[in-house]
Design a protein that fits this description.
single chain, alpha/beta, Zincin-like, 3 domains, four-stranded mixed sheet
Length: about 270
């Protein structure tokens, strides 16, 4: 059911969903759409009153979503488009050859150290340490996705790229869980990578952690935050102050990572 009301010179529309629950919940979709979940027997008048009281909050959140959307990077499966890996945008090069048996994805350095030294201004840097630092930054930013494909079907290329991200995410989180395990008395029983629309990860009651396959697109320290967050749910199954204190014990600056994810999560996609 769609309902709407006026707030100043703004009109706020929301979708009302009735459920077996005790309280009214207001949430915003990535599109800015407002979804209100309410108990089965709650009157429409009372629901409108509750939502009207949150009107300013709703408008502020919609403005935040619009600002994030305006920063969304357009991606397509063509040479020159970019994809994220560990917080960095890297261009891709599509190489089409019908003789390829399958689509392969590689993230590689486009030029070697020798080529960089021979072909650009770094030949004029005398200080070896300075040269090394500058080359390291260049090498890091000089990576490129090479997509060798036997088809230009975007869906098939997308599936191959998703498979690559799934493998990378699993590889990284396995290592990071091992690294942080010393902080916990309980152990992670299973690690899985899957499609998750609204969560970056989740921890089950049996201490299995399920990761969104897009996690390897996030900055390395932000990915650590996701790992720590879910491992802390082995100690506290909610988001109480005790839970956040536990997260803070292991990662004191976790709020900065959380904020980066909130602001940049819109670009962690293919």
């Amino acid at each position: 059911m769609k309902l709407k009301f006026k707030y100043g010179n703004k009109e706020i529309e929301f979708s009302l969903v009735r459920k077996k629950r005790k309280t009214i919940c207001i949430k915003l979709e990535d599109s800015g759409e407002v979804i209100v979940s309410a108990p089965l027997r709650t009157s429409k008048e009372y629901i409108l009153l509750v939502v009207k009281n949150k009107a300013l909050w709703i408008l502020e959140k919609q403005k935040e979503i619009q600002q994030r959307t305006s920063r969304k990077v357009k991606r397509d499966f063509a040479t020159g488009s970019t994809f994220m890996y560990l917080g960095e945008e890297y261009p891709c090069k599509i190489i089409s050859n019908e003789k390829n048996k399958k689509i392969t994805i590689d993230l590689v350095v486009e030029q070697s150290y020798e080529e960089l030294i021979l072909n650009n201004e770094y030949t004029n840097i005398n200080n070896i340490e300075m040269l090394g630092n500058k080359l390291e930054k260049t090498i890091y930013s000089n990576k490129i996705f090479i997509i060798n494909t036997n088809t230009m079907d975007n869906e098939k290329i997308k599936m191959a790229l998703e498979k690559w991200y799934r493998a990378e995410t699993l590889k990284i989180v396995q290592k990071r869980i091992d690294f942080y395990a010393v902080n916990f008395k309980d152990r992670v029983t299973e690690i899985r990578v899957k499609e998750q629309k609204r969560r970056w990860a989740s921890c089950t009651g049996k201490n299995a952690i399920l990761f969104n396959w897009r996690c390897s697109m996030a900055r390395a320290d932000v990915l650590d935050y996701i790992v720590i967050h879910e491992m802390c749910h082995m100690d506290h199954r909610n988001h109480s102050k005790y839970f956040w204190n536990r997260v803070s014990e292991i990662m004191p600056d976790y709020k900065e990572k959380h904020e980066w994810l909130r602001k940049n999560g819109i670009n962690l996609y293919i």
